[in-house]
Amino acid sequence: MKNMLEINKVRIAIIGVGSFGQHHARIINGIEDAELSAVVDSDAARGNEISGKHGVSFYSSIEAINDEIDGVVIVTPTGLHAETAQYFLDKNINVFVEKPITDKSNDALKLIQTAESKGLVLHVGHVERFNPAFLSVRESIKEPIYLETNRVSPFPARIKDADVVFDMMIHDLDIVLSLVDSEVLDIKAIGMKVLTEVADIAQVRLEFENGTVANLTASRVTESKCRKLRVYEKNQYTSVDFLNRSSYQAKTIITDGKKQIQINNPDITELDQLQFELSNFIAAIRGEDNIGVNGIEAYRALKVAEGIAKVMKFS
């Protein structure tokens, strides 16, 4: 492996430049330590449009791209994640892949094993970890006893066949698992098919080995958006509004021998969370400290999502 710290720019190709991938291309093109080298898309018109906007090469297939890149950002449909990521890892190229890591946990394990054996970076796009409201309270949350998440929105036109657990709730599964230092013991789930032939609404209860409980709700058939997290601990309550980027904490403290309630509205650092996430991928390639979501963490969220799918009862 090259010593990336000796390289001025980390060369990146974007695989898939649709409605979401175009933003990855724009952001990579603006990161100081990165260089957007190429875009790949099966839609030639779209690929040429985005590549022309940034003055880089366009390829219609991953096989056509040359080896003069250090990493790829994969923003394809989930069903293509495993094959595409495996192709580049086998070629000793670092990989960032959007969430969920793959559509099958066995494929995710293979990616993790390949990356580890080759000393490559494998990051997964769980972008809510980089939300400034969450970051403002993350380190103060120590031992959750009970958690609630609520993530609802109008129906997105881009959805084809992914259910709401893998499309939306996967964000909150990752957040909850990052906060609870224990394994999932039991899963209960109910769902409803409203506008598609898969779950459009899901309610999930996770029980952990240490006794922690998490209730998660996701829906894509509401008239407005809401993305919230509530965490209850002994002597502390925390809420995070991912959408409006605000947070709140109330905790008990002892002052002059008396118990009092202290209210805190943490300062929120304004930042582009996708840019922060991709910058962490670039930093990881360069061998620098980073807080990117690695393959193992993404695999855990995917495994729980698969567990939910197995036990979900439909009403």
Describe the structure.
- The structure is a single chain.
- This protein folds into 2 domains: 4-126 and 274-293, 3-Layer(aba) Sandwich (Rossmann fold), CATH 3.40.50; 129-270 and 303-314, Dihydrodipicolinate Reductase, domain 2.
- The termini are far apart.
- 30% of the residues lie in helices and 30% in strands.
- It is globular and about 65 Å long.
- Helix 3 packs parallel to helix 4 (105-118) and helix 6 packs across helix 8 (295-311).
- The strands form 2 sheets. Strands 14-13-12-11-7-10-9-8-15 form a 9-stranded mixed sheet. It has a 6-stranded parallel sheet with strand order 3-2-1-4-5-6, sandwiched between helices.
- The protein is α/β, with parallel strands linked by helices and 315 residues long.
- It contains 8 helices and 15 strands.
